[in-house]
Amino acid sequence: xxxxxxxxxxxxxxxxxxxxxxxxxxxxxxxxxxxxxxxxxxxxxxxxxxxxxxxxxxxxxxxxxxxxxxxxxxxxxxxxxxxxxxxxxxxxxxxxxxxxxxxxxxxxxxxxxxxxxxxxxxxxxxxxxxxxxxxxxxxxxxxxxxxxxxxxxxxxxxxxxxxxxxxxxxxxxxxxxxxxxxxxxxxxxxxxxxxxxxxxxxxxxxxxxxxxxxxxxxxxxxxxxxxxxxxxxxxxxxxxxxxxxxxxxxxxxxxxxxxxxxxxxxxxxxxxxxxxxxxxxxxxxxxxxxxxxxxxxxxxxxxxx
Length: 305
Prior knowledge:
The chain is α+β, with helices and mostly antiparallel strands.
Protein backbone atom coordinates (compact mmCIF):
# COMPACT_ATOMS: atom_id res chain seq x y z
CA UNK A 1 0.00 0.00 0.00
CA UNK A 2 1.16 3.51 -0.72
CA UNK A 3 0.74 6.19 1.96
CA UNK A 4 -2.28 8.44 1.58
CA UNK A 5 0.00 11.46 1.69
CA UNK A 6 2.37 13.28 4.03
CA UNK A 7 0.64 13.43 7.41
CA UNK A 8 0.30 16.91 8.89
CA UNK A 9 2.78 16.57 11.76
CA UNK A 10 1.30 19.42 13.81
CA UNK A 11 -2.09 17.75 13.85
CA UNK A 12 -5.49 18.98 12.72
CA UNK A 13 -8.31 20.73 14.58
CA UNK A 14 -11.85 20.39 13.26
CA UNK A 15 -15.02 22.05 14.56
CA UNK A 16 -18.22 20.03 14.92
CA UNK A 17 -20.99 22.69 14.84
CA UNK A 18 -24.31 22.06 16.54
CA UNK A 19 -27.06 21.18 14.04
CA UNK A 20 -30.27 23.13 14.54
CA UNK A 21 -33.58 22.08 12.98
CA UNK A 22 -35.27 25.44 12.56
CA UNK A 23 -38.33 23.54 11.29
CA UNK A 24 -39.07 19.85 10.85
CA UNK A 25 -42.12 18.37 9.12
CA UNK A 26 -42.74 14.62 9.09
CA UNK A 27 -44.07 13.87 5.60
CA UNK A 28 -44.36 10.08 5.50
CA UNK A 29 -42.90 6.74 6.44
CA UNK A 30 -40.99 4.21 4.37
CA UNK A 31 -41.74 0.50 4.37
CA UNK A 32 -38.56 -0.12 6.36
CA UNK A 33 -39.87 2.06 9.19
CA UNK A 34 -37.75 5.15 8.55
CA UNK A 35 -39.71 8.40 8.70
CA UNK A 36 -39.57 10.83 5.80
CA UNK A 37 -38.73 14.39 6.81
CA UNK A 38 -38.62 17.88 5.38
CA UNK A 39 -36.39 20.06 7.52
CA UNK A 40 -34.80 23.50 7.47
CA UNK A 41 -31.38 23.13 9.05
CA UNK A 42 -28.66 25.52 10.11
CA UNK A 43 -25.46 25.16 12.11
CA UNK A 44 -24.21 27.11 15.09
CA UNK A 45 -20.78 28.42 15.99
CA UNK A 46 -21.24 26.54 19.27
CA UNK A 47 -20.26 22.91 19.06
CA UNK A 48 -17.77 20.20 19.84
CA UNK A 49 -14.11 20.34 18.84
CA UNK A 50 -11.94 17.47 17.65
CA UNK A 51 -8.16 17.28 17.41
CA UNK A 52 -6.35 14.69 15.29
CA UNK A 53 -2.67 13.83 15.54
CA UNK A 54 -0.43 11.05 14.22
CA UNK A 55 0.30 8.42 16.86
CA UNK A 56 1.78 4.97 17.39
CA UNK A 57 -1.70 3.50 17.86
CA UNK A 58 -5.31 4.57 17.53
CA UNK A 59 -6.86 6.22 20.56
CA UNK A 60 -9.78 8.42 21.57
CA UNK A 61 -9.79 10.70 24.61
CA UNK A 62 -12.58 12.92 25.91
CA UNK A 63 -12.65 16.37 27.49
CA UNK A 64 -15.06 19.29 27.77
CA UNK A 65 -18.13 19.96 29.89
CA UNK A 66 -19.91 16.78 28.78
CA UNK A 67 -16.85 14.58 28.28
CA UNK A 68 -17.38 12.75 31.57
CA UNK A 69 -21.03 12.05 30.73
CA UNK A 70 -20.01 10.59 27.38
CA UNK A 71 -17.26 8.55 29.00
CA UNK A 72 -19.81 7.09 31.43
CA UNK A 73 -21.90 5.90 28.48
CA UNK A 74 -21.11 2.30 27.42
CA UNK A 75 -20.28 3.63 23.93
CA UNK A 76 -18.37 6.69 25.16
CA UNK A 77 -14.83 5.66 24.22
CA UNK A 78 -15.51 2.43 22.40
CA UNK A 79 -17.69 1.74 19.40
CA UNK A 80 -19.10 5.26 19.01
CA UNK A 81 -19.64 7.38 15.91
CA UNK A 82 -16.17 8.94 16.01
CA UNK A 83 -14.37 5.61 15.97
CA UNK A 84 -16.85 4.21 13.44
CA UNK A 85 -16.17 7.18 11.15
CA UNK A 86 -12.41 6.66 11.53
CA UNK A 87 -12.67 2.97 10.71
CA UNK A 88 -15.03 3.36 7.73
CA UNK A 89 -12.89 6.11 6.21
CA UNK A 90 -9.72 4.06 6.70
CA UNK A 91 -11.40 1.05 5.06
CA UNK A 92 -12.43 3.14 2.06
CA UNK A 93 -8.91 4.52 1.63
CA UNK A 94 -7.39 1.05 2.00
CA UNK A 95 -9.67 -0.18 -0.79
CA UNK A 96 -8.03 2.48 -2.96
CA UNK A 97 -4.59 1.17 -2.04
CA UNK A 98 -3.80 4.00 0.37
CA UNK A 99 -2.26 3.36 3.76
CA UNK A 100 -3.30 5.40 6.81
CA UNK A 101 -1.24 5.88 9.94
CA UNK A 102 -2.72 5.45 13.45
CA UNK A 103 -4.33 8.54 14.90
CA UNK A 104 -4.87 10.03 18.34
CA UNK A 105 -8.29 11.72 18.49
CA UNK A 106 -9.31 14.12 21.23
CA UNK A 107 -12.99 15.01 21.43
CA UNK A 108 -13.83 18.15 23.38
CA UNK A 109 -17.48 17.46 24.18
CA UNK A 110 -19.13 20.84 24.66
CA UNK A 111 -22.68 19.89 23.60
CA UNK A 112 -25.10 17.83 25.70
CA UNK A 113 -25.27 14.23 24.53
CA UNK A 114 -28.39 12.82 22.84
CA UNK A 115 -29.97 16.27 22.76
CA UNK A 116 -31.42 16.79 19.28
CA UNK A 117 -28.68 19.04 17.92
CA UNK A 118 -26.65 16.43 16.10
CA UNK A 119 -23.75 16.17 18.56
CA UNK A 120 -22.71 12.62 17.69
CA UNK A 121 -23.46 13.10 14.00
CA UNK A 122 -21.51 16.36 13.92
CA UNK A 123 -18.58 14.62 15.63
CA UNK A 124 -18.65 11.82 13.03
CA UNK A 125 -18.75 14.32 10.16
CA UNK A 126 -15.89 16.32 11.70
CA UNK A 127 -13.91 13.07 11.99
CA UNK A 128 -14.31 12.43 8.26
CA UNK A 129 -13.24 15.98 7.40
CA UNK A 130 -10.39 16.06 9.90
CA UNK A 131 -8.88 12.70 9.01
CA UNK A 132 -8.93 13.45 5.29
CA UNK A 133 -6.91 16.56 6.13
CA UNK A 134 -4.54 14.76 8.51
CA UNK A 135 -3.90 11.90 6.08
CA UNK A 136 -3.75 14.29 3.12
CA UNK A 137 -6.23 12.08 1.30
CA UNK A 138 -9.36 12.56 -0.77
CA UNK A 139 -12.44 10.62 -1.81
CA UNK A 140 -15.09 11.33 -4.45
CA UNK A 141 -17.96 13.31 -2.96
CA UNK A 142 -20.42 10.49 -3.70
CA UNK A 143 -18.31 7.93 -1.82
CA UNK A 144 -17.83 10.24 1.15
CA UNK A 145 -21.58 10.91 1.24
CA UNK A 146 -22.25 7.15 1.23
CA UNK A 147 -19.92 6.69 4.21
CA UNK A 148 -21.67 9.54 6.02
CA UNK A 149 -25.10 7.97 5.45
CA UNK A 150 -23.86 4.61 6.77
CA UNK A 151 -22.98 6.43 9.99
CA UNK A 152 -26.45 7.94 10.38
CA UNK A 153 -29.18 9.92 8.64
CA UNK A 154 -27.95 13.23 10.12
CA UNK A 155 -24.27 12.78 9.22
CA UNK A 156 -24.55 13.85 5.53
CA UNK A 157 -26.01 17.21 6.50
CA UNK A 158 -23.42 17.62 9.27
CA UNK A 159 -20.73 16.89 6.71
CA UNK A 160 -21.91 20.01 4.85
CA UNK A 161 -22.35 22.11 8.04
CA UNK A 162 -23.99 24.90 6.05
CA UNK A 163 -27.65 26.05 5.91
CA UNK A 164 -29.66 23.50 4.00
CA UNK A 165 -32.98 21.81 3.44
CA UNK A 166 -32.95 18.09 4.18
CA UNK A 167 -35.55 15.65 2.91
CA UNK A 168 -35.96 11.90 2.54
CA UNK A 169 -34.58 10.44 5.76
CA UNK A 170 -32.16 13.37 5.87
CA UNK A 171 -29.82 12.36 3.07
CA UNK A 172 -31.35 14.50 0.28
CA UNK A 173 -29.72 17.89 0.79
CA UNK A 174 -30.41 21.23 -0.90
CA UNK A 175 -28.17 24.17 0.11
CA UNK A 176 -29.88 27.34 1.29
CA UNK A 177 -27.38 30.08 0.36
CA UNK A 178 -29.89 32.82 1.14
CA UNK A 179 -30.25 32.00 4.84
CA UNK A 180 -28.87 34.78 7.09
CA UNK A 181 -26.99 34.31 10.34
CA UNK A 182 -29.13 34.34 13.49
CA UNK A 183 -28.23 35.25 17.06
CA UNK A 184 -29.44 32.27 19.07
CA UNK A 185 -29.68 30.76 22.53
CA UNK A 186 -29.54 26.99 22.90
CA UNK A 187 -31.23 25.62 26.01
CA UNK A 188 -31.51 22.11 27.41
CA UNK A 189 -32.81 20.89 30.80
CA UNK A 190 -30.19 18.10 30.69
CA UNK A 191 -32.78 15.36 30.72
CA UNK A 192 -32.98 12.76 27.97
CA UNK A 193 -35.98 12.09 25.77
CA UNK A 194 -36.33 8.89 23.75
CA UNK A 195 -36.26 9.57 20.00
CA UNK A 196 -38.00 6.26 19.12
CA UNK A 197 -40.73 7.02 21.65
CA UNK A 198 -41.17 10.54 20.25
CA UNK A 199 -41.72 9.13 16.76
CA UNK A 200 -44.00 6.40 18.12
CA UNK A 201 -46.28 9.02 19.67
CA UNK A 202 -46.63 11.04 16.47
CA UNK A 203 -50.34 11.27 15.68
CA UNK A 204 -49.91 12.38 12.05
CA UNK A 205 -47.05 11.16 9.88
CA UNK A 206 -48.06 12.37 6.42
CA UNK A 207 -47.87 16.15 6.75
CA UNK A 208 -47.41 18.48 3.76
CA UNK A 209 -43.84 19.53 2.90
CA UNK A 210 -42.39 22.90 3.80
CA UNK A 211 -43.06 25.90 1.55
CA UNK A 212 -40.34 27.74 -0.35
CA UNK A 213 -37.99 29.89 1.77
CA UNK A 214 -37.46 33.64 1.26
CA UNK A 215 -35.28 34.41 -1.77
CA UNK A 216 -33.08 36.94 0.04
CA UNK A 217 -31.00 36.91 3.24
CA UNK A 218 -33.32 39.21 5.17
CA UNK A 219 -33.57 38.23 8.83
CA UNK A 220 -37.09 39.53 9.41
CA UNK A 221 -38.41 37.80 6.30
CA UNK A 222 -36.84 34.51 7.39
CA UNK A 223 -38.17 34.76 10.95
CA UNK A 224 -41.65 35.54 9.62
CA UNK A 225 -41.46 32.54 7.26
CA UNK A 226 -40.07 30.18 9.89
CA UNK A 227 -42.88 31.24 12.21
CA UNK A 228 -45.37 29.68 9.78
CA UNK A 229 -43.60 26.32 10.12
CA UNK A 230 -43.20 23.93 13.06
CA UNK A 231 -41.41 20.92 14.47
CA UNK A 232 -43.80 17.96 14.29
CA UNK A 233 -41.77 16.16 16.97
CA UNK A 234 -42.20 18.89 19.56
CA UNK A 235 -45.70 17.99 20.79
CA UNK A 236 -44.91 14.32 21.54
CA UNK A 237 -41.56 15.31 23.07
CA UNK A 238 -43.27 17.83 25.37
CA UNK A 239 -45.69 15.11 26.48
CA UNK A 240 -42.77 12.86 27.36
CA UNK A 241 -40.68 15.57 29.01
CA UNK A 242 -42.65 18.57 30.37
CA UNK A 243 -39.41 20.48 30.98
CA UNK A 244 -39.27 21.13 27.23
CA UNK A 245 -42.34 23.31 27.53
CA UNK A 246 -40.77 25.14 30.45
CA UNK A 247 -37.57 25.74 28.49
CA UNK A 248 -39.55 27.20 25.58
CA UNK A 249 -41.54 29.45 27.92
CA UNK A 250 -38.32 30.74 29.49
CA UNK A 251 -36.79 31.49 26.10
CA UNK A 252 -39.89 33.38 25.00
CA UNK A 253 -40.01 35.34 28.25
CA UNK A 254 -36.34 36.30 27.82
CA UNK A 255 -37.01 37.92 24.44
CA UNK A 256 -36.72 35.16 21.87
CA UNK A 257 -38.76 36.16 18.82
CA UNK A 258 -38.90 32.58 17.52
CA UNK A 259 -38.77 29.69 19.99
CA UNK A 260 -38.86 26.02 19.04
CA UNK A 261 -37.45 22.60 19.86
CA UNK A 262 -34.69 21.21 17.64
CA UNK A 263 -34.81 17.67 16.27
CA UNK A 264 -36.34 15.19 18.67
CA UNK A 265 -35.26 17.24 21.70
CA UNK A 266 -34.66 18.08 24.34
CA UNK A 267 -32.62 21.08 23.16
CA UNK A 268 -34.69 24.15 22.30
CA UNK A 269 -33.62 27.42 20.72
CA UNK A 270 -34.64 31.04 20.71
CA UNK A 271 -33.73 33.57 18.03
CA UNK A 272 -32.79 37.06 19.23
CA UNK A 273 -32.31 40.40 17.53
CA UNK A 274 -28.55 40.43 18.07
CA UNK A 275 -25.80 38.57 19.90
CA UNK A 276 -25.80 40.98 22.86
CA UNK A 277 -29.48 40.18 23.45
CA UNK A 278 -28.69 36.46 23.30
CA UNK A 279 -25.88 36.86 25.84
CA UNK A 280 -28.17 38.86 28.14
CA UNK A 281 -30.81 36.14 27.86
CA UNK A 282 -28.28 33.45 28.85
CA UNK A 283 -27.27 35.46 31.90
CA UNK A 284 -30.92 35.83 32.91
CA UNK A 285 -31.83 32.19 32.20
CA UNK A 286 -28.80 30.81 34.03
CA UNK A 287 -29.87 32.63 37.18
CA UNK A 288 -33.26 30.89 36.98
CA UNK A 289 -31.90 27.40 36.28
CA UNK A 290 -28.21 27.22 37.12
CA UNK A 291 -27.89 23.50 36.38
CA UNK A 292 -29.42 23.59 32.91
CA UNK A 293 -27.51 24.15 29.68
CA UNK A 294 -27.73 27.61 28.12
CA UNK A 295 -25.45 28.80 25.32
CA UNK A 296 -25.44 32.03 23.35
CA UNK A 297 -24.22 31.55 19.80
CA UNK A 298 -24.56 32.64 16.19
CA UNK A 299 -25.55 30.47 13.29
CA UNK A 300 -23.52 30.12 10.12
CA UNK A 301 -24.87 32.16 7.21
CA UNK A 302 -25.50 30.64 3.80
CA UNK A 303 -22.83 31.03 1.17
CA UNK A 304 -24.23 33.32 -1.51
CA UNK A 305 -21.18 33.34 -3.79
